[in-house]
Amino acid sequence: MTTHVNVAIPEIRISAIQDIKLSDIDIPDNRARSFDQDEAGALAFIIAASGLQHPIRVRLVGDRFRLIAGRKRLEAFRMLAWEMIPATISTAATDDEARLEEVMENLGRHELKVLDRCHHLFELKQVYERLYPDAKHGGDRGNQHTGGKTQKLRLAADSDEVFGFAAATADKISLSRRSIELAVKIWKDLSDASRKRCAGTWLADHQAGLKQLAEQSHADQAKVLDILFSDPPKATNVSDALTIIAHGVVLTPTEKKVDTVKNTLRAMPDTVVAAVVDERLAEMQNSITVLSKFFAKLEDAELDKVVEQHEERIVASLQRRGRI
């Protein structure tokens, strides 16, 4: 049940902002950002104390307003039982233009969890390519227009991709081209079920884990999440969950090192592997020679001491060789 807190609205206003009834605002079902009720509750107390620092953004659809950005702020006002909320009105004429505003507004606020950022950047790429299809196929990089609307996110002259934003756009979202490409790939490669299961968990803000999870098949993604989200968890990171899938148990630190060496050797060309093996055999032969000289110089009493410390292994060696 939603908790209502009756608090007077602080008089904090910014120019060009309209007060709109909460009851006149609709929330689209296909929001780009996941919603956290607890975060909205925490925000409600902040707003009650200091007012709304950033108005929400809406657009007029028919005789009602449709939310573009500010879901948590809107829900915080509902919790406070306030009837009106400050908002700016978008001039977006289509759903795609509204989605472009939504993702850019959220990316610019730097409040997104890793999973949400991946979703936003994936959405940005899809929407941008629908709005400006020539950009996707390497069209004119100059003043592109869609229905007379000037392109707001102009591409760099040497890029066919949406990620070739002008420097000003890249600076606004504080992400490099490489980080944008990685985020889009993570979201694209995660199954829909994996995205939903990760939302609201620690993994939603763990880029390395999400990247490793996205690199697996959809079937293995489900297995990994079963392991991570079991009660109690059978593993605390994606890497260990994958190890459990492969070996049945989490490897010890020594076993992990051995496994790493094995994987490294498998990735090497046969000629390189042969050279590594020859080098290791030469090291072992040298060690045997050194030990042989060491034992030869020992007095009987000293040799007895060494044998006493390694008696079981020495006896087993003599048995293998048929000497006893």
What does this molecule look like?
With 324 residues, this protein is of the alpha/beta class. The protein has 15 helices and seven strands. A five-stranded mixed sheet has the order 1-5-3-4-2. It has a two-stranded antiparallel ribbon with strand order 6-7. Helix 3 runs antiparallel to helix 4 and helix 4 crosses helix 7. The longest helix is centred in the last third of the chain and has 27 residues. The chain is elongated, with a radius of gyration of 31 Å. About 12% of the residues have low confidence. InterPro entries: Chromosome_partition/occlusion, ParB/Sulfiredoxin_sf, ParB_N.
Number of strands: 7
* Arithmetic mean pLDDT: 75
Strand order of the largest sheet: 1-5-3-4-2
* Low-pLDDT runs: 9-15, 137-169
Largest sheet descriptor? 5 strands, mixed
Helix content: 40-55%
Pfam families: ParB_N (PF02195)
InterPro entries: Chromosome_partition/occlusion (IPR050336), ParB/Sulfiredoxin_sf (IPR036086), ParB_N (IPR003115)
Protein name: ParB family chromosome partitioning protein
Domain ParB-like N-terminal: 18-107
Question: In short, what is this structure?
Answer:
One of its GO terms (biological process) is chromosome segregation. The chain is of the alpha/beta class and 324 residues long.
